[in-house]
Amino acid sequence: MSTAGSIPADPPAGRSGTWVGSLAIGLLLAAEVHAQVEWRRSPLNPLVPFATTGGYAMDPVVIRDEAAGVYRMWYTAYSGTWQIHLALSTDGIHWFTYVGNPVLSAGSAPFESGGVSYAGVVREGSGYRMLYTGVQGGYNTAIGTATSPDGIEWTRYPGNPVLSTEGSGWDSQRIETAHALLRDDIGFRVYYTGYDGVRHQTGLATSVDGVHWTKHPENPVLPAGAPGAWDDADTETRGAIFVDGTTLLFYTAQAPGSQRAAIGIARSLDGVHFERLPANPVLTGGGPASWDWTIRGGCPTLESTSLHLWYAGTPRDAAEWSIGLATTSAALLGVEEPGTPRPESVMLAPGRPNPMRAQVSFEYTLAKPEHVRFEILDVLGRRLASLVDEEQNAGRHACEWRAPGVANGVYIARLSAGPVVRMRKLAVVR
To answer: Looking at the structure, do residues 137 and 201 belong to the same domain, yes or no?
Structure first.
């Protein structure tokens, strides 16, 4: 297969043995330095071995529940059909598989008759929302959504699927890997993989309610790399994180003819236009005898001053996917842990009034002189109005949007001041 982005047609038989999820805790050592980004693989890897299912434990998404003091991991597994399994941990090292697995399996709709895979999960209120990829005939052609109060019992949306392949174009044959699901005060974003029969590329879809999704008109937002680049055959999205106005997108790729995939990062200030890190690929597989000779992933979380990357790997000439952990300094990627005390360089107050009828006012503060752009966008990211585009001094500023002819709906106010981006959601109701 290419970068393991498609469901393998013939899963291997499971090996005997059981795993009870208890592994010795230790420091993250054995540093690997690659292309200016230093990663430390856990010496206890793999943390979730393939033997927990029929041969696959891959493509994890991890959420740290600070209130409950646990980590929750949903991952793709195989036991006769493709399924979503759950594992729990109190420290991110010792993982215990849920005794009632799977938490989501094949459904009655045709698009998921062969199972489910590639889940993305975010918090929604006091519960969770999942996007998952359906498997039909060994291929992924549509994405569904489900909600859960506890991450265990899931209720499918009756109108599934919510995203499907198109008749032609970059995602005409397959649509999959909904891991990179983000939620903020504007709504939901998912970076998903499309396949046209030649290469895998990454696109963006947005939603206000998590159910009704619209593909971005500039898709694919992360196309395959330039000829001769390490990622010129594929860019398969696997995870994303949004910090201080910057979206970091983690994707899997491999050079044409190569049997080894690696992980790269692309960065964006607006969530649409991405720039690849010069250090790519930032994480590669281990040695010929390692459990992670080729890798795919991953799901990023911020822990104190470290970026944790949950990824999957398999040995050479085998299909025994397991899940491991690698860490790096968050400072190396230009991000900080949410909540880290620091002075706010740019502050954007909510628009008033909100909801609005025909006009709305915004106030914002700059800590130092910056070139400021203030724009109004629709939920697809299209610019409706440019209110400010100039150099401005430090201090408090204000602007106003008059839109008597704009249709009812949700819009986005985006303030860009130097490298900092701030956004607010705005409703028009008449």
So the answer is: yes
